[in-house]
Design a protein that fits this description.
InterPro entries: ArsR-like_HTH, HTH_ArsR_DNA-bd_dom, HTH_Metal-responsive_Reg, WH-like_DNA-bd_sf, WH_DNA-bd_sf. It is built from six helices and two strands, in the order ααααββαα. It is mainly α. Strands 1-2 form a two-stranded antiparallel sheet. Strand 1 and strand 2 form a beta hairpin.
C-alpha cells in the first residue's frame, strides 16, 4: 500500500507537468503515439530548444521516457496508463463545469 506522502508526490508531479500548456500538448501528442523531438517540435510549432526544456521537465517528473532508435531518440509516455489518466482527467473536468476558466493562480493567491 502506498503512503499518503507517495500519493501526494505522484499527484504533484502530474500536476506540475500539466501546469504548462506546452507540456500538456506534448503529453497529448505522445498519448497518440511515440515521437522524435524534431517531429514533436514541428507538430507543436515550437523551437527544438523550447521543446527540449519541456521534455526534460517531463522526464524529471517521470512521465516520459526516451527510447533509443538507432542514432536517434524517441519519446513516449512512461506508462500507457498515463494516456488513460489524461483522457479520464479531461473528461472529468469537462463534466464538472464546462463554463469555468481557471483564473491566474497569482490573482487567487494560490501557490
Amino acid at each position: 500500500m502506498l503512503t499518503i506522502a507517495t500519493d501526494i508526490d505522484a499527484l504533484a508531479r502530474f500536476g506540475r507537468a500539466l501546469a504548462d500548456p506546452i507540456r500538456c500538448r506534448i503529453l497529448l501528442a505522445l498519448r497518440e503515439s511515440p515521437a522524435h523531438p524534431a517531429d514533436l517540435a514541428d507538430v507543436l510549432g515550437i523551437s527544438r530548444t523550447r521543446l527540449s526544456n519541456h521534455l526534460a521537465c517531463l522526464r524529471d517528473c517521470g512521465l516520459v521516457v526516451t527510447v533509443p532508435v538507432g542514432r536517434r531518440v524517441r519519446y513516449e509516455l512512461a506508462d500507457a496508463r498515463l494516456g488513460h489518466a489524461l483522457d479520464d482527467l479531461r473528461s472529468a473536468v469537462l463534466a464538472v463545469e464546462t463554463d469555468k476558466a481557471c483564473a491566474d493562480a497569482a490573482e487567487k493567491g494560490c501557490c
